[in-house]
Amino acid sequence: MKRIVIFASGNGSNAQRIADYFQDNKNVSIELIISNKSDAYVLERAKNLQIESWVIDRPTLYQSETVVERLKKMEIDLIVLAGFLWLIPANLIEAYPRKIINIHPALLPKYGGKGMYGMHVHEAVVANAEKMTGITIHYVNSCYDEGDIFFQTTCAVEPNDSPQNVAQKVHLLEYEWFPKIIENLLFQ
Ligand code: GAR
What we know:
- With 188 residues, the protein is an alpha/beta fold.
- The protein has one domain: Formyl transferase, N-terminal domain (Rossmann fold).
- Strands 3-2-1-4-5-6-7 form a seven-stranded mixed sheet, with helices on one face.
- It is globular.
- The site of glycinamide ribonucleotide has 16 residues, from helix 1, strand 5, helix 6 and helix 7.
């Protein structure tokens, strides 16, 4: 049995998609959803999915070993960041080398770094009249969006696309690919 924890800060549509994808897979379990926001919609999703959730604050994540200790006790195999907006601290990265992955809604190294998340990314892509965008899945290190990339795929940006259109296209790519890539990683 492979055990996953998902970190998410907001809506959680990727978390939902991952949970749905593995629902009938007896070899994979989404054990826990962690959020840094007590009003994040992902917590509602966790409740509906009957997945345990945990809201953490800054001191818990950055000034204690609580998260590492809990994940170790749960024998977590993979940490998945799905729209999680806080930096992952060094103690967690050291405890899970190459076992923490993130999805980014653009083609890194473009449109990454602090403040580049969600709609901000798509607005920048449209403002720069990019012809192409996409998704990046990468290992997490202690800098925003800088860990080794192991998957990217693209979609076209049309001249009249709004940031909302682009967001929709990118989300579809995320829903299609993120669960499959997670599965590959778990069983490679
Ligand atoms: C996703 O598009 C994800 O790629 C992005 O946040 C969105 C979360 O949506 N992540 C980042 O921008 C990280 N820098 P969701 O909550 O509906 O899954």
